[in-house]
């Protein structure tokens, strides 16, 4: 988990757990990535099903 946190967000897990501001930044980025992924899936789905 440490390597994943460091690679994805540039902070260690311990820092993530101790510092509220860091945790909020990481969670906001995760939510943004999730929404982008959901939009990408919806776009691809509409193209595959011909709902352009």
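^ Assign residues to that structure.
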């Amino acid at each position: 988990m440490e390597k994943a946190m460091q690679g994805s967000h540039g902070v260690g897990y311990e820092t993530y757990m101790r510092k509220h501001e860091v945790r909020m930044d990481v969670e906001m980025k995760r939510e943004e990535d999730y929404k982008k992924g959901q939009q990408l899936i919806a776009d691809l789905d509409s193209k595959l099903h011909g709902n352009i």
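The chain has three helices and no strands.
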